[in-house]
Write a structure and sequence with these properties.
Length: about 250
Amino acid sequence: MFQFGMDRKILYIIMAVLVVMSLGRYLNDTNALLNLVLTLPAVLIAITFHEYAHAFAADKLGDDTPRRQGRLSLNPLSHLDPIGSIMLVFAGFGWGKPVEINPRNFHRTISMSAGEAIVSIAGPAMNFILAILFSILFFVIAKFAPAFAMTQLGSIIMSLIQITIIINVGLGVFNLIPLPPLDGSKVLNHFLPYNAKEWFARYSQVFYIAFVILWISGIAGSIISPIINLVYQGIIRLVAILFGIF
């Protein structure tokens, strides 16, 4: 995951605006309010496993920094960032508490650049794995317990599963954007030639500012929302084919 170097006050303002804009809809729409409630456990699952995957990958590569900091845990309290979590609830994309690593601790069988790329890709990869697993769970219930799925409790559980799939896809896609400070930038950096890496590093602050502008203006959301929907629909269709549902 990433860290924001921008003033936290700006993030609080953005968060407050999103919450205020959403309150009216949630208070006047029972279904929207229910979806909000169901989004909370989905956010806990998505962020916790995302950050745990970063910590797990770093630990396996020889860096014990996450372990020493208590990040090699599935306890949500170890990974949640208040602002990032609220953004994930209200905006559909967000972040958790960054996992700190020291690439110098990686095994000598792997370069620091490759190690950072592996640790970075581990988070989004975990989210896509979770999306697939919850999709399988959805179709298992739909195919083998259709009567239960039609009950009030079953309907709530099915909605929770769907929201969990969407949140995980959203978190995974968002973090793969190849701009600092997102995970995708570290993955891209590993594959760039030396001169391109130097150029990328020299102008990283510019890319960072560009990302912040795109994010605050809502342009980033409008760009990645179709991608999130495409990946979501792709996962659902693949799992549906697996269960013989076309």
